[in-house]
Amino acid sequence: MRWYTSILFVLLRAVSALPLRFWQMCGAASGWIFWLLPTRKREIVQANLARVRPQLSLPVRNKLARECLIETGKALLEAFGIWTRIDRTLRAVREVRGGELFEAALASGKGLILCAPHLGSWEVANYWVGARTPFATFYTQPRYPQLELLLRRLREGGASTQFPIDDSGVRRVFRHLGNGGVVSIMPDHVPRSGGTVAPFFGVPALTMTLLPRLAARTQANVLMLFVERLPKARGFVIHFRETPVALRDPDLAIACTALNAAVEDCVRLAFAQYQWNYKRFKPRPGSGLPDIYRTSHLMEHAG
């Protein structure tokens, strides 16, 4: 790392000593700002909720949008109290639900795919899994190399291997799983190319085919994983959940529908903690999907 990156690391390491409660309170305050001001995050959350919760009245939906933005703020800022504080973070885990599924999958030696959607606190899962087994993740290389080095240093103790999101990275993941390795994938990432349109909360969404193809070809175990943030900074609950058999179906439309249904089941357990500020329904050329995030569409659902 260059000198200025090293200085920034030291500063972030120092501020991470502040209590996690402090960072979550700051995050909640940020969420209120996202809600009170005409921010892009608020517009996207409102647009998403208008699709996935159309049965709610506008006041009720706006209340839910505010709760989602508060949780978004917590997710953004709590990382500053988690990075480099492995022991403290692990002590904050109050319960692990479905931990026996994780242990059995590791013991099988058949490889393990962890489906980790944009839900809850991934940084906690990163340390918890990393404390038990080496694992790999996909990553998008940051525009600035020094930022990549900084994030790697801050997250030491988590993922031991990172594969680029390209053809070479996919080939390496197939080999990694074939050798009995563990890999985590965000199953609700909108694919840059390819993909299949499948319903997500009843709304057509471009869905990755990589995860179903990995599961079918490698016969690795597949588990859902997310970390629920408890209220009032009381800690975290880690959830492991089984995935439907249809996720391995050779018909990718069926497999992607099953994948999205598995993500939905997780989201329902902590609905406001899903990153509804993420453009989950973003179209790609040729997908045939409308762009619900255009200004004209967003204005229709502003309240």
Mean pLDDT: 91
Q: What coarse outline follows from CA principal-axis ratios?
A: globular
Secondary-structure element order, N to C: HHHHHEHEHEHEHEEEHEEHH
Strand content: 15-25%
Total beta-strand segments: 9
Structural class: alpha/beta
Largest sheet report: 7 strands, mixed
Q: How many H/I helical runs?
A: 12
CATH class: Alpha Beta
Radius of gyration: 19 Å
Question: Can you describe what's shown?
Answer:
The structure is a single chain. The chain is α/β, with parallel strands linked by helices and 303 residues long. The protein has a single domain (3-300), classed as Glycerol-3-phosphate (1)-acyltransferase (3-Layer(aba) Sandwich), CATH 3.40.1130. Helix content is 48%, strand content 16%. The chain is built from 12 helices and 9 strands. The strands form 2 sheets. The chain has a 7-stranded mixed β-sheet with strand order 1-9-8-2-5-3-4, with helices on both faces. Strands 6-7 form a two-stranded antiparallel ribbon. Helix 8 links the parallel strand 3 and strand 4. The longest helix is centred in the first third of the chain and has 21 residues, at 58-78. The protein is globular.
